[in-house]
Specification:
Keywords: Signal. By secondary structure, the chain is an alpha+beta fold. The chain has four helices and eight strands. The protein folds into two domains: 101 residues, Translation Initiation Factor IF3 (2-Layer Sandwich); 105 residues, 2-Layer Sandwich (Alpha-Beta Plaits), CATH 3.30.70.2970.
């Protein structure tokens, strides 16, 4: 009889220990409802710098003559850029090529012959004074630049603009969340998560034409924009 009582006491003591170590399964009603939304913000401003890519292309009977012609024009272009106080850090040779020119063989029986060479020299320039951009373009073409590969407007400092775009993106996401919550008849709670989607990107904007001097190339600077996107998750209060 004493042995039976002892076993009974041991089993009663062990039950709380086993219950404490058992996994706890939460009721579905204890899990907070959530609302996920995305938002986008755009900040616009007048650009304060431009990047242009220009160059010269020349053909000659020999490779050295073709290369000499492009080199001479390239040197004149660099000298002209210095006259506009464009710093060396803003000028970079982006491409230099030399290729043979072949005859067209219509019969197909003979191999094409090299009849000359074509050389090209490409330079990328950052212009930080947009008031002189048209004059710069006019000057370099006057020095022999006969290739234009692109003109892009931008900003020297994008931090302030990106901060504005991010604030607008968060405000856009919150406005959407409040609208959805109101439509669903629930109350919007705290922010559970906030993340930025990708990096900033430039946004094309309609340009407002800005004419330069009469002897310069007409340039339309207009406005440029930067965009930011965010994803937010809100708690829903039932």
């Amino acid at each position: 009889m004493k042995l039976v009582r002892a076993l009974t006491v041991v089993s009663l003591v062990a039950l709380p220990f086993l219950a404490w170590n058992s996994p706890v399964i939460a009721d579905e009603n204890d899990i907070a409802a959530r609302l996920s939304v995305s938002g986008e913000g755009v900040a616009t401003a007048v650009p304060d710098m431009a990047t242009i890519t220009l160059g010269v292309r020349a053909q000659a009977e020999t490779a050295s003559d073709a290369l000499d012609q492009t080199s001479a024009v390239g040197a004149d272009i660099l000298a002209k850029l210095e006259e506009f106080d464009i710093e060396a850090r803003d000028v970079q040779t982006s491409d230099l090529s030399l290729n043979p020119i072949y005859t067209r063989n219509n019969s197909g029986n003979e191999a094409p012959l090299i009849v000359g060479f074509e050389a090209s020299n490409r330079v990328t320039v950052r212009v930080r004074d947009l008031d002189r951009l048209g004059a710069v373009l006019g000057a370099v073409t006057g020095e022999g630049a006969n290739q234009m590969y692109g003109l892009n407007f931008g900003f020297e400092d994008t931090d302030a603009m990106m901060d504005e775009a991010r604030r607008k993106a968060v405000a856009d996401a919150r406005a959407k969340a409040e609208l959805y919550a109101e439509a669903a008849g629930v109350t919007l709670g705290r922010v559970i998560s906030l993340s930025e989607q990708g990096g900033f990107r430039p946004v094309p904007m309609p340009v407002a034409e800005m004419r330069m001097a009469a002897d310069a190339v007409p340039i339309a600077a207009g406005e440029s924009a930067l965009s930011a996107s965010v994803s937010m998750v809100f708690e829903i209060v039932q």
